């Protein structure tokens, strides 16, 4: 996920490349960042954050307790901490100190400038901190300010969301394959369908249900498809999936 953000902000020159330092425990990842984006890299978290104005925490939430003490110990007192970690509350990061934390829940389409991110201020974050986070994430897609208690829902909707869309595409393409369509052609048609449907909804301002109704001729092919989805409880399953993702995000808060 960090790569998607680095690619976007460096590509859009929101941040100068020489001002970005990426840390990782994987030498391969560091080489990838260095050769792919020209950023500085380091295997030393504490060293890298020592002179950083903004520290973006992008390890897995489960690793946070292991890495945070060394990072926190070398943070500049006025550093802003931007966390993209799912679940971990800003108060847990600040751990009783007045650390300025902004939580961001981005998604991987940021890599191609089409991201969707929710941004929430922790207790000590300022308006300027929120603006900076919006500028960083706004460079790689849509960025919306939300309350911190809404971040678990944003995680379920747009953080995990690309995976649901890819799941739908996987399923559509499996079906196309079974119907004997050539793979290259079905890939292009399926992608244009998803992008086109999203664009139509965006540009028309109409509700999804209304746009769906307009495709569904009485007694026609779409009705046959939608009826099958309804019979099999797909809508309920999608709702349950988002609620499960939100619940998991809340669980991650407790480690
Ligand atoms: N993948 C996604 O679509 C999204 C992920 N996130 C959040 O982003 C964070 C990272 O997730 P991914 O990018 O998917 O995981 P990832 O596993 O691809 O990246 C995590 C990186 O952290 C590195 N790492 C592990 N231990 C480290 C340490 N001690 N010091 C420095 N680096 C270390 C790993 O080598 C790896 O390159 C998570 O907290 C996740 O909740 C948020 C939104 C979307
Ligand atoms: O699956 C996860 O936990 C992360 C957070 C949102 C997307 N990926």
From TrEMBL:
Q: Which reactions are catalysed by this chain?
A: L-proline + NAD(+) = (S)-1-pyrroline-5-carboxylate + NADH + 2 H(+); L-proline + NADP(+) = (S)-1-pyrroline-5-carboxylate + NADPH + 2 H(+)
Pathway info = Amino-acid biosynthesis; L-proline biosynthesis; L-proline from L-glutamate 5-semialdehyde: step 1/1
Q: What class of enzyme is it?
A: oxidoreductase
Report the SUPFAM superfamilies cross-referenced here.
6-phosphogluconate dehydrogenase C-terminal domain-like, NAD(P)-binding Rossmann-fold domains
- GO molecular function list: pyrroline-5-carboxylate reductase activity
Instruction: Kindly list the places in or outside the cell where this protein is found, as annotated in its UniProt entry.
Output: Cytoplasm
Keywords (alphabetical) are: Amino-acid biosynthesis, Cytoplasm, NADP, Oxidoreductase, Proline biosynthesis
Q: What's a BP term from Gene Ontology annotated to this protein?
A: L-proline biosynthetic process
Q: Where does NADPH bind?
A: 45
Q: Which domain of life is it from?
A: Bacteria
Instruction: Please state every residue range assigned to the domain named Pyrroline-5-carboxylate reductase dimerisation.
Output: 148-252
User: Is Amino-acid biosynthesis one of the keywords UniProt gives this record?
Assistant: yes
Q: What GO CC annotations are associated with the protein?
A: cytoplasm
What main location does UniProt list? Answer: cytoplasm
- The segment(s) forming the Pyrroline-5-carboxylate reductase catalytic N-terminal domain are 1-87
Q: What is its EC number?
A: 1.5.1.2
What protein family is recorded? Answer: Belongs to the pyrroline-5-carboxylate reductase family.
Q: What does this protein do?
A: Catalyzes the reduction of 1-pyrroline-5-carboxylate (PCA) to L-proline.
Q: What is this protein called?
A: Pyrroline-5-carboxylate reductase
Task: Cite the source lineage.
Answer: Bacteria, Pseudomonadati, Kiritimatiellota, Kiritimatiellia, Kiritimatiellales
């Amino acid at each position: 996920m960090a790569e998607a953000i680095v690619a976007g902000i460096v590509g859009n020159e929101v941040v100068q490349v020489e001002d970005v330092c990426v840390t990782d425990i994987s030498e391969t990842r560091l080489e990838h960042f260095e050769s792919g984006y020209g950023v500085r890299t380091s295997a030393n978290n504490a060293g890298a954050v020592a002179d950083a104005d903004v520290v973006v925490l992008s390890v897995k939430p489960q690793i946070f307790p292991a890495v945070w003490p060394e990072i926190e110990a070398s943070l500049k007192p006025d550093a802003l901490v931007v966390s993209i970690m799912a679940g971990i509350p800003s108060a847990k990061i600040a751990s009783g100190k007045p650390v300025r934390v902004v939580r961001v829940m981005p998604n991987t389409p940021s890599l191609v400038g089409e991201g969707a991110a929710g941004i929430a201020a922790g207790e000590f974050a300022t308006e300027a901190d929120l603006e900076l986070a919006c500028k960083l994430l706004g460079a790689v897609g849509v960025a919306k300010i939300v309350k911190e208690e809404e971040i678990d829902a944003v995680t379920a909707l747009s953080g995990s969301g690309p995976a649901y869309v890819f799941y739908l595409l996987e399923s559509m393409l499996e079906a196309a394959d079974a119907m004997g369509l050539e793979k290259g052609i079905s890939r292009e048609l399926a992608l244009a369908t998803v992008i086109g449907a999203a664009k139509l909804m965006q540009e028309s301002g109409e509700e999804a249900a209304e746009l769906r109704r307009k495709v569904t001729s009485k007694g026609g092919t779409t009705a046959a498809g939608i009826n099958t989805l309804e019979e099999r409880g797909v809508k309920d399953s999608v709702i349950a999936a988002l609620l499960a993702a939100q619940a998991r995000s809340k669980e991650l808060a407790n480690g």
